[in-house]
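Appendix C reproduces, verbatim, an entry submitted by the partner laboratory led by Prof. M.T., so that reviewers can inspect both the input and the predicted structure.
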Amino acid sequence: MRDGISLTKAGHPTVVVVQGPFEEAARALAKALGLPQLRLYVYPQHTVGGSVAEEVDKGMKAASELARLIERP
C-alpha cells in the first residue's frame, strides 16, 4: 500500500492489488495517507468446491478488470 501511494504521489500510474478481506483496510489506509482515490484491484479468492470452469471464468474477468484499471489514465 505505501509503495503504491508513494508511486502515485510521485506521478506514476499505479494500481494496488489487494485480496478481498483487506479491501476495507487498504481503502482506509489510502484515505488516511491522503490518497482516497488510489486505484485498487480487489482480486477474487478461490472458491472451495468451485468448478474449474467457474475458476477460469473468474480469472478471465479478473484479468480484464485489472487491464482496464491499468489502462485508465
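The mean pLDDT is 89. Additional entries are available on request from the coordinating office.
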